[in-house]
Amino acid sequence: MLTNVRRGLPYGCKAFPNEVLRAVRLGECGTVEEWLRDHDVNRADGGGFTLLLHAARYMAISETAKNVIEFLIKRGADVSQSDNGSWSPLHYVASAHKIPGAIDAARLLLAAGAPINEQTAATKRTPLGAVVHSLLCSNLSFYIHRESVDFIALLLSNGAALDGCCALSGAHSAEAVLLDVVRTSNLPGGSHWQVDDMASLQFRSVDDKARCLEVQALFARTRQLRDRYTLLRMRSLVLRGRATTTDDVMKSLFLRANHLVAKVYAFLPAQLGVK
Predict the structure, then answer these.
(1) Number of domains the chain contains
(2) Most-buried pick from 6, 124, 193, 210 (CB within 10 A)?
(3) Does 86 map to a domain?
(4) Containing H/E element for 10?
(5) Which residues pair with 4 in a beta bridge?
């Protein structure tokens, strides 16, 4: 019999009773708590799904699953544990970002230390990539929800990488992924956008255009701040003798010491996620 080497369970093994999975979907923590009295909170089924992963996956159809996510985290559920496709709880919640309560579930996961730049096995998709790729509505028309913008802002403020957020091979920036999603969206009559920049697009509504531009601005502002942070950090290292440069222009800039550099460096927001 084939087995899941990671979990030591036969493939297809059903680790959770139907009533427990139903309780997870409906947010009934009492039933889940009763089952956990005799079982490990990080137990996984043949697909690599823990109860936390099931709860995160159910966010796509049930806002009440958020209650179980919070309960499981408090019970010690591993927020970094992924399924056999390398989808983490944050990946599933990010894919369900249009559902009310998804952003609150994401905050719980991030506060518990969920990895924000982990990639899936097949598509190399990060949680940010999952959001951008989920911007299409079910009818394949392009529309950015208010929840989408807020979710993207949350991920960026917690250090989500703009580069390598989704690619079958090689790195793919968030800006490029957004443009790809928009320009390949179907329009009435089966036509497609074939453009290279957002300014050339025709949007369905003023709100849709505003939100799309807001996402673009979030990406641009984040990249600008992180570039500035990196430059100031490099300069700080040079001033403290912990780094050197052979570039005459950079040396001139870095060695122009003044206390203003230290002040600016100290007040940059820590949540930018630059290490």
Answers:
(1) 1
(2) 124
(3) yes
(4) strand 9-10
(5) 9
Distance CA 184, CA 250 (A): 42
H/E segment holding residue 3: strand 3-4
Residue 32 lies in a domain: yes
Are 77 and 46 within 8 A, CB to CB? no
Give, as one character, the DSSP assignment of residue 186.
B
CATH (domain of 35): 1.25.40.20
d(CA 236, CA 245): 12
- For the entire predicted model, the pTM comes to 0.78
Residues listed for the chain: 275
Encoded tokens for 223:
């990249």
Q: What is the pLDDT of residues 211-267, one digit of tens each?
A: 888 998 999 999 988 887 777 777 777 767 777 777 776 666 666 655 555 555 555
> What are 205's two structure tokens?
């509504």
| Domain enclosing residue 44, as ranges | 1-115
